[in-house]
Amino acid sequence: NLTIDGGLTVAGGTVRLAQSFTEAGATTVGGSLILGADNTWNERLAVTGALEVEDPQTLTLTNGLDWESGTLSGNLLLTNTSTNHLNQNTGGNLVLSGATLTNQGDLTQHQGNLYLNFGSSLVNEGTMSVDTGFVTRSAGAAGSLDNQGTLNKTGSGEYRIAIDSFDNSGLVDVQEGTLEISSAGTFDGDFQIAAG
C-alpha cells in the first residue's frame, strides 16, 4: 500500500498505479490516471481528464467526486457519505466508457451531457438530482440508467433521458421543469409530478 502525505495531481501525461494507495489530500486528474488495484479514497476526487479503473478493481469514494469533463472507465462506487457534482461549473460532455458508476450518496448533474458508452451503467441507490442536459449513448454497446433510489428533476430547464435502458424501481420526482423520457425499460417504482 502506497501512502501519499499530500494530495495527488496528474496535470498531464499518463500515470499508472499498480497498487492501492491512501492520500492525505484531494486527487486531481487533468491528464490520465490508471488504477490497477482496489482503492478507497477518503478525500475528494476532481476529474477533467481521464480516469481508468482496471477491471475487476473498484474505486470507492467516501468524500465525493467533482467531474467537470473527460472520461471515467471501470468500476466506481460513491458511498452514502459522499456529495458528488457533475458539470457544476461547465456544460461539457462527460463520458462513462465501459464503466459502472454506483451512487449511494448525493449526486447532482447540474448541466451538460452524460454519455453511457460501451455498455456503461449508472446505478442510483441514493439521491440523484438533474437540472438541464441529457443522458444518452454515442458509441459501443447499450448503456443503462437504473434508479433504485430517488431521481429528482430540479430547475426550470429540460432534462432528457435517452439511454438504451432506463429502469425505475425507486422514485422519480419531477419538482420543476421538464423531464423527457425516450428510453425503453421497466417502471416498477413511482413517478411524482409537481403541479404547474
Describe the structure.
By secondary structure, this protein is mainly β. Helices cover 0% and strands 57% of the residues. The protein has no helices and 26 strands. Strands 3, 6, 7, 9, 10, 12, 14, 16, 17, 19, 20, 22, 23 and 25 form a 14-stranded parallel beta sheet that branches. The chain is globular. It starts with a strand and ends with a strand.
Radius of gyration: 16 Å
Query: Please, what is the average pLDDT?
Result: 95
Q: Judging from the principal axes of the Cα atoms, what is the shape?
A: globular
Percentage beta strand: over 45%
What is the number of E strands? Answer: 26
Q: What is the tally of helical segments?
A: 0
The residue fraction in helices comes out at under 10%
Distance between the termini: 55 Å
SSE order? EEEEEEEEEEEEEEEEEEEEEEEEEE
| Low-confidence blocks of residues | none
Largest sheet: 14 strands, parallel
Structural class: mainly beta
